[in-house]
Automatic annotation (TrEMBL):
Primary enzyme class: lyase
Record carries keyword Oxidoreductase: no
Active site: residue positions: Y244, H252, K283
Domain TSEN34 N-terminal: 11-79
Stretches with biased composition (Low complexity): 166-208
SUPFAM superfamilies per record: tRNA-intron endonuclease catalytic domain-like (SSF53032)
Gene Ontology MF term list: nucleic acid binding; tRNA-intron lyase activity
GO biological process: tRNA-type intron splice site recognition and cleavage
Protein name: tRNA-splicing endonuclease subunit Sen34
Entry keywords, A to Z: Endonuclease, Hydrolase, Lyase, Nuclease, tRNA processing
Length: 312
């Protein structure tokens, strides 16, 4: 099935100091086209009391949001200000509200139809399986009766008690869709939209918000991303980022990354601890930053060094 198209630039919403994506199509597009994974932070309605599997919205690191803006594929939107301007300062007309409600009802009807068809298909498949099994049992019992009659033996009749009772009769006609009664057909699903558009039509403002503030490790993040790596938060390994050679759903990370300023002082134990931890989890410990020198056109100004602990 073809992936839904997402118009660029798409909005990244700033809410409470966090950069988020609410549209599932924008989430998949950012991952597929721009190697941006983010972290899902929303609960699942069907499994609300667990945090192993989460859903939208997708929270982006400030580095990810800034990178998308600098590439020109996204823009920052003040979520609260946009909603206040659209829904309070300029209240929706009655026609717009009714149109929005009709669209939600249509989505609910489509979802109900798909779920009902899926349930009916499962029921028909189960009934056909039972009918086939009953036919096989009936044929086996009939064969046993015929063999016993030829041998002159008697077989327990209907008036005698039997462990299995009477032989099940196989339906002559396989169940059809018309014969399956669905109990959920009359109930239309209620849709809770994850985005506010429509009716809120977000567009790039003439006075865009400032770029997200990023740490000193951003040049290293941008450098590795430009080399094709997927970058994810590295808090589970005590570092700034983890770098994956492909989609994290398919690959293990190769590097634990920490970015620094070129003249930043650091403790040697940081390198020892990072190198030993990286080697212990079969990854390299990578540090890097922007080299403090005059940049030549076409020359990469970010340098990275990988440390491995060879004594383990």
């Amino acid at each position: 099935m073809a992936s839904p198209s997402v118009a660029e630039p798409f909005p990244v919403f700033l809410a409470g100091g966090r950069y988020t994506l609410y549209d599932v199509n924008a989430v998949s597009h950012a991952r597929r086209a721009h190697n941006i994974t983010g972290v899902l932070i929303g609960g699942l309605p069907q499994a609300p009391q667990q945090n192993v599997f989460l859903g939208i919205p997708l929270e982006l690191m400030p580095e990810e949001a800034r990178l998308l803006v600098e590439k020109g594929v996204a823009y920052i939107v003040d979520d609260a200000a946009v909603h206040k301007h659209a829904f309070i300062d300029h209240n929706l007309s009655k026609e717009e509200k009714e149109k929005f409600l009709r669209s939600l009802k249509k989505q609910g009807s489509d979802a109900t139809r798909i779920q009902t068809k899926s349930a009916d298909d499962r029921k028909i498949k189960a009934l056909k399986k039972i009918a086939s099994k009953n036919a096989a049992v009936a044929a086996k019992l009939e064969k046993e009766r015929a063999d016993a009659a030829v041998a002159g033996e008697t077989v327990a009749g209907d008036d005698e008690e039997s462990l299995f009772g009477s032989a099940p009769s196989a339906p002559s006609v396989a169940p059809s869709e018309a014969s399956v009664q669905s109990s959920s057909a009359s109930t239309i699903m209620k849709i809770t939209p994850t985005t506010s558009h429509p009716p809120l039509l977000s567009s790039e403002s003439s006075s865009p918000l400032p770029l997200p503030q990023v740490p000193a490790s951003y040049p290293l993040f941008k450098h590795l991303h430009s080399e094709g790596y997927f970058m994810a938060p590295g808090i589970r390994f005590g570092c700034r980022y983890t770098a994956y050679p492909g989609d994290p759903l398919r690959f293990h990370s190769h590097f634990l990354c920490d970015g620094m300023d070129w003249d930043q002082e650091f403790d040697l134990l940081t390198l020892v601890g990072g190198g030993r931890l990286g080697t212990g989890v079969k990854k390299g410990f990578l540090v890097g930053g922007t080299e403090d020198k005059e940049k030549v056109d076409g020359e990469e100004d970010v340098r990275a060094f990988c440390i491995e602990w060879a004594g383990m």
